[in-house]
Specification:
With 327 residues, the chain is an alpha/beta fold. 31% of the residues lie in helices and 23% in strands. The strands form two sheets. An eight-stranded mixed sheet has the order 6-7-8-3-9-10-12-11, sandwiched between helices. A four-stranded antiparallel sheet has the order 2-1-4-5, covered by helices on one side. Bound molecules: adenosine-5'-triphosphate. Adenosine-5'-triphosphate binds next to strand 1, strand 2 and helix 1. One of its GO terms (molecular function) is ATP hydrolysis activity.
């Protein structure tokens, strides 16, 4: 049984301009110990999936639908109380976007780290402080970091603190939303190495959200590409890197520079459509180079939503693509 199974997840926001279909029928699963990278341009719905998984969604969410099964149990439909006491942070943890900048400036690192342990889980204060120091050590920080204030730490140190805070209750699944985006390249590499080591040491399962395909393929076993609220392609990171199929994934890959610069960089014109009135059929067709050049696709891609097709793959994982070109 997979650790996590997301089945036809939909999450809509209500706004004065209409309903934003931020996540619209997304399904994927994750085995214990596996790392999945969720990739896509800004505004595709990646963070909304993360918030749905940890059930910390915005006030203007108008509907949430589908199933999120964790260890076989549908945790989307259990009570808030049960999710808060049994799952959030205990089994499923989240390192939110820009988390290193959301540390409380007037509390020491120790005070912020032990708060959830003491308040929500009734752990004795001294024991909680020991746990905090152990976890700081595990993420490569000195134990006396507990006495420091956020302004006394560098960006990389604060990001390590944010990771330590997520791990303090030893969760099974950790969702990392752009964990390295605000850091310089050297610090980014250090955090990536830390995540790899923690994964081995604590047998963690990660969902790693990023718009950086190079980072995704370095850390992840599988890569799922989102476009305008939908998953358009999902496969093992090798398959996705060597032989991307969806025209959107191909476009994203083409815009990633390589160190040796052996390939010509391409630019993908256009932008993610409004999720209030997304295009009918395939959401990508207005930007798709094949739709523009091949007459037989007219009346198909712009009318009917493509099904998921299992294309040729070499790894153990299926390689699914939602595109009429492969039907
Ligand atoms: N509270 C909200 N109310 C209305 N619309 C929202 C809300 N939060 C997000 N959205 C919209 O939902 C869509 C998906 O947003 P989301 O933040 O999940 O995307 P993302 O892929 O994580 O982007 P980014 O990388 O910029 O965080 C976007 O169109 C966004 O504008």
């Amino acid at each position: 049984m997979a650790l996590l199974e997301v089945d036809n997840l939909r999450l809509y926001y209500s706004t004065s301009k209409g309903v934003v279909k931020a996540v619209d029928g997304v399904s994927f699963d994750l085995e214990e110990g596996e790392t999945l990278a969720l990739v896509g341009e800004s505004g595709c719905g990646k963070s909304t999936i993360a918030k749905a998984l940890i059930r910390l969604w915005e006030r203007n969410v108008s509907s949430v639908d589908g199933e999120i099964r964790f260890e076989g149990r549908d945790v989307l439909h259990i009570s808030d109380e049960e999710f808060r006491t049994q799952y959030r942070w205990k089994k499923i943890a989240w390192v939110p976007q820009a988390s290193m900048n959301s540390l409380n400036p007037v509390l020491t690192i120790g005070e912020q780290m032990i708060e959830p342990l003491v308040i929500h889980h009734g752990v004795d204060k001294d024991k909680a402080l020991m746990q905090a120091m152990d976890m700081l050590e595990a993420v490569g920080l000195p134990r006396d970091t507990v006495r420091r204030y956020p302004h006394q730490l560098s960006g990389g140190m604060k990001q390590r603190v944010a990771i330590a805070m997520a791990l303090i209750l030893m969760p099974k699944l950790v969702i990392l939303d752009e964990p390295t985006s605000a850091l310089d390249v050297i610090t980014q590499a250090n955090i990536m190495n830390l995540l790899k080591r923690l994964r081995r040491e604590f047998k963690l399962t990660y969902i790693f959200i990023t718009h950086d395909l190079a980072l995704a393929s370095e850390l992840a076993d599988s890569v799922a590409v989102m476009y305008a609220g939908k998953l358009v392609e999902w496969g093992s990171s090798d398959d996705m890197y060597v032989s991307p199929k969806h025209p959107y994934t191909v476009g994203l890959m083409g815009s990633v520079p390589t160190l040796r610069g052996e390939k010509k960089l391409t630019f993908m014109p256009g932008e993610v459509p409004s999720l209030i009135n997304p295009p009918t059929g395939c959401h990508f067709y207005p930007r798709c180079p094949y739709f523009a050049s091949r007459g037989e696709l007219k009346g198909l891609c712009d009318r009917d939503e493509p099904p998921y097709i299992d294309v040729e793959h070499k790894g153990v994982r299926r390689h699914l693509v939602s595109c009429w070109l492969y039907k």
